[in-house]
Amino acid sequence: MDPYALILPLIRTLGPERAHRLTVRALAKGFGPVQRRPDDPSLRTRVFGLDFPNPLGLAAGFDKNAEAWRAALRMGFGFVETGTVTPLPQQGNPRPRLFRLAEDAAVINRMGFNNDGMEEVARNLAGPRPGIVGVNIGKNRDSADPVADYAACAARVGPLADYLVVNVSSPNTPGLRTLQGPEPLSHIVDAVSQTLVRACPSGAPPILVKIAPDLTERDREDIASVARGAAVAGLIVANTTIARPPGLRSRWRSESGGLSGKPLFEPSTTLLADMYRLTGGKVPLIGVGGIGCGGDAYRKIRAGASLIQVYTAFVYQGPLLIKRIKDELAALLHADGYDEVDAAVGAQHR
Ligand SMILES: Cc1cc2nc3c(=O)[nH]c(=O)nc-3n(C[C@H](O)[C@H](O)[C@H](O)COP(=O)(O)O)c2cc1C
Question: Is the C-beta atom of 317 inside 6 A of ligand 1?
Answer without folding.
Answer: no
